[in-house]
What does this fold into?
Amino acid sequence: MEHKASVLENLADVRAMIKRHKRNDTLFATLGLICLMLGLMTLMLLFWQLIADGHPKFNLDFLTEFPSRRAGRAGLLSAWVGSLLVMSVTFLTAVPIGVAAGLYLEEYAPKNWFTDLIEINVSNLAGVPSIIYGLLALGLFVYMLDFGQSILTAGLTLGLLILPIVIVSTREAIRAIPVSIREAAYGVGATKWQVVYDHVFKYSYGGILTGIIIGMARALGETAPIITIGALTFIAFLPPSPITTEPPFLNFEWLSSGFTVMPIQMFNWLSRPDHAFHVNAAATGALIIVVTLLMNGAAIWLRYKIRKNIKW
Amino acid sequence: MKTRLFRNTLMAGLIVQAFSFAHSAAAADKIIKIDGSSTVYPITEAVAEEFQRAKGVKVTVGESGTGGGFKKFCRGETDISDASRPISQKEIDACKEGGVQFIELPIAYDALTVVVNGKNDWVKQITVAELKKIWEPGSKVKSWKEVNATYPDKPINLYGPGTASGTFDYFTEAVNGKAKSSRTDYTPSEDDNVLVQGVAGNAGGMAYFGLAYYLENTDKLKAVPVVAKEGGKPVLPSEATVMDGTYQPLSRPLFIYVNATSAAFKPEIKAFVNYYLENAPELVKEVKYVPLPKADYTAVKEHFKAMKPGTGFNGTSEVGIKITDLLSRIK
It folds into this structure.
């Protein structure tokens, strides 16, 4: 009786407390929203400004013309082709190696101090400034292995750069697979490889893909390591075509060709005295953001599609 | 399964091919390789663009800076190196070690321009001594009044190029008497457009950079006429004053260094350099630099024809040297 009375007595206090907590909730939600908006609005503003400045160059000529001393005539052809070729080398090297390394570390590697050491190193590597990779690549690929200042060198450099990202995201994706799936597979007599390939890998495919695409998007915007290994700025011809009309229809000469990429053109145009070049730079910036957003969008869409198909 | 097999074969093939083609491709195609100063880049880009269009020979131009360019040049990786300052002793040694002989060719002038904010109405001219007072190492000048007692007591905000730049080297040499010696409490940027923005947004701002950046921003900035010696005439940087040698000591020659072996044995290099010197007067102007006087281009052409390797600078930089004197030093 007495107890009940005390609650009734404190009713006002309890109500005040609830009210206070609700207010705190609202306060935090508002703060969070402001923080989110701050980040988002900055990006939107930047993107909008790039579009506003660069829109006169949003035409096909900009993509089919080579660099030029005249801003009006200058285009991105050698840059976007260069970016595309470099990115394909990056993709073909970083993805198989990164995914395999992630699978090994997560599924096969014995848990001992050596594996721990590798794990710490991989995580740290993901945070190393990109210029360091450029210096490494200059010594290793350009001079020691004598690949020259080529598309191959650039692709391998960016491959190294995004390797930790691919490894870490592969491992995260694999970790999200419940142990029960593995146990069930072993239970019906599957071998280790069957478990890994048919179940673990297939179910974590979406997550792995997201990591790969985020890595590739980062590589697309990198300038520092590419300049370090000696990318060109003015190049008014394209590398030899990878596809030929004669057998064997494939040609690898492009790998040793000189190149330029989109961020380098943007950087160069931005540093010009003539303001007309700044329009080109803005248009290039907008294009890079659009491509990056598309890649990230593709990652989200693919992850959604793949998750939908997984039926445990 | 089939596609996986195909992909594996492709990967293996890719690696094998990459190794075997890394060397042969360069020889198969004639490519003129140029790298170096970002100041000289616009001129070389203009020449490369026209030469490629006219002669169909492929030309590539990089901009890893004068120092970065010489590194590659002295290893024999490039045929021509753009330079906004003369080759240094260290670089001469590196070239000797790499077995690279070079021909030094001045190709244009750049006028380092001292600028102030467009609203600055007190600075009508500046002497080199005043510049030194502002920029010398350890300078404590904080207000315009300290530069000249007749100026208002307004804070002076300094902007300048980063220490890796050739512009910095030349300005400090010309003003402070020693390359790379400068006060350090100014806002540096490797991007001249940032310096333009800085001075444009600051009533007491002051900076120095290449003439082209001033000419594109005359609405926001004011160039200050420079008095070389006490009692001399103030001179504004312009094509005329640079060409007749009166804009001193801040006009500097720009160079290309040509690999002598390439020039002698590769006809396309020879053709390119001749094309460069032939079309420089027009193209240099188009990208807003100052061409050499006609007689100097003739002298430079003769110099290249004679294929005299070496530098006229002896590994140091000099202020206010005449092109013809420079060329005659190389025997």
About this structure: The longest strand of chain B covers residues 102-117.
